[in-house]
């Protein structure tokens, strides 16, 4: 069994972490909680327990009015589109060892939650204190972020504060900014009904997005090789571009110089080949070089925008 | 938003928000040209372009995809005299999913930019979509940026291209021109052109000037200051003609050149000309995010065939090229005139089968989509910022 509320509070006191506690009837939602502690200042937290496709779990703890977009977070974590969904109810009890409606960062004190990743809302820091459930929904305690951090460190956790509302683009040159918060190992659960539950969730919010992303992943293997070379650093690598262009030209030349062709065209082969190269490679070259031009300009533009004024 | 003509029979409807053929039929482009009052592009015009640019004219010009124009000859006359012009095109960012039909005006505009070596402004009408599709401001702005990436992937030259979103850019000189245009168009006129009713909100009624003023160089002081005489050429699909009829009417009254237009026909849906390409039916079009597998499956399963029901009948009668979608698509995208003519001949005579034509089409489309995807992968947010920055373009005519 997980730690009890009393044990947790004792632990906090031991660590000399300041908190205030407020008893109230069992609440299952932030709205209900607000009725009892909403008038005390500070910030109420909403806590989401999430799971990804590889059975890795996450707690996202945010201020009640912070907008949390699971699709965006999923991409930022490097899970692709639609890779995150609400964890099934059973896992609450099994992993966090808390009842329904009681997800809280404090539940990480339990050994069973050792592989759960924690994302904390940066906006907590702007609050004097924030309210969390101490492993039970009939009480809320107020903690400062310092207090919370101290507690997390005591259970060997690194507090990670994240701008949950940010929506940075993720692409070839911008790796998912939250990728480091993905747990290194997945949690193995006893029951197979898990997969049934998650496949049901599948259909719900990932309809068009999910379809497209799985389609993309099936085509990935074939163009993976090409994709590797599309990183901006690679694009503006002059040496590499020259090599690639000369390679495709050589390939074409070698393909066309066959005994058959020599016999057929003799001396004319040179001219014919030259024409063929121009026809077949022109469009390809044009595209590649335009990408090069635009990328180089963008790098210059970016540098210009971030240039420090000249020192007088 | 229907404009019903005063005729007895129901007319086809073509305006920026609705394209509908007469019941069960195809769009009658000859009638449209008549109705709108624009000109057909003929072979001599295409030849003239070839001479002036020393480039093979784009496949869309050669195949009558861009088939109508207004004052394109004047643009070419001026160009011959050494007077430059600039290009103006745009997109209403209503969805993230772009299909090949969406790319057509951009592919053609890129060709024009390269062939004539002129600058280009691209308008993203996020405000229009916010108004007509009832999107939130944030969502329409987000879609505008996403669409900008696919547009950039078409290969526009950043040293000659300015992309802007209405929500970002409207103001200053641009807005001054909007007011000037607005003052020249009565409410009755705008109702006549766009079919507004008393029930339509004023957001809609006041939008047309926004799409009109990029035709005037003074709307872009950071680009064309001191060049009030610069002409403008607008490549677009023919359903946009009403905006620019209005603009051309107003231009001389406020001391500007009338913008010239070069217009395309509509890209048919996979299911055929009478079908409708719709964002909600992913099988009606080839999307830029489709994998090679998707393309193959879509063409094989959904492309409407003009071939006969049985091989024997087909060998006897040949394919109906008028309605055959694979052949039509090849007309758009197969660059090689000789190969296309060969396919037309053999398929029309029944010697070539639908399967073979579809196979060739799949090859052609896959190559296009792959190339687009590669280019798209190289477009970063910084690149979008660079294209959309209000910055001078010193070499835009070189």
Structural commentary:
With 312 residues, chain A is an alpha/beta fold. Chain A is built from eleven helices and eight strands. In chain A, strands 1, 2, 3, 4, 5, 6, 7 and 8 form an eight-stranded mixed β-sheet that branches. In chain A, a hairpin with a 6-residue loop joins strand 6 (130-132) and strand 7 (139-143). The longest helix of chain A is centred in the C-terminal third of the chain and has 37 residues, at 269-305. Chain A starts with a helix and ends in a 7-residue tail after the last helix. Residues 190-229 of chain A have low confidence and may be disordered. In chain B, helix 7 crosses helix 20, helix 15 packs antiparallel against helix 19 and helix 17 (325-333) packs across helix 19. Classes of the chains: A alpha/beta (312), B alpha/beta (398).
Chain pair with largest interface: A-B, 30 and 28 residues
Quick one: CATH class of the largest domain in chain B? Alpha Beta
Percent helix of chain A, as a range, is: 40-55%
Order of helices and strands of chain A: HEHEEHEHEEEHEHHHHHH
Q: Describe the global form of chain B.
A: globular
Chain-averaged pLDDT of chain B: 91
Share of helix of chain B, binned: 40-55%
Strand order of the largest sheet of chain B: 3-4-9-8-5-6-7
List how many beta strands of chain B DSSP finds: 9
Query: Can you count the beta strands of chain A?
Result: 8
Specify Rg of chain B, calculated over alpha carbons: 21 Å
**Uncertain runs of chain B:** 1-8
Radius of gyration of chain A: 28 Å
CATH superfamily of the largest domain in chain B: HUPs
Query: What best-fitting shape of chain A do the alpha-carbon axes yield?
Result: elongated
Structural class estimated from helices and strands of chain B: alpha/beta
Give the oligomeric state.
Answer: heterodimer
- Range of strand content of chain B: 5-15%
EC number (chain B): 6.1.1.2
Subcellular location (chain B): Cytoplasm
Protein name (chain B): Tryptophan--tRNA ligase, cytoplasmic
GO biological process, one term (chain B): tryptophanyl-tRNA aminoacylation
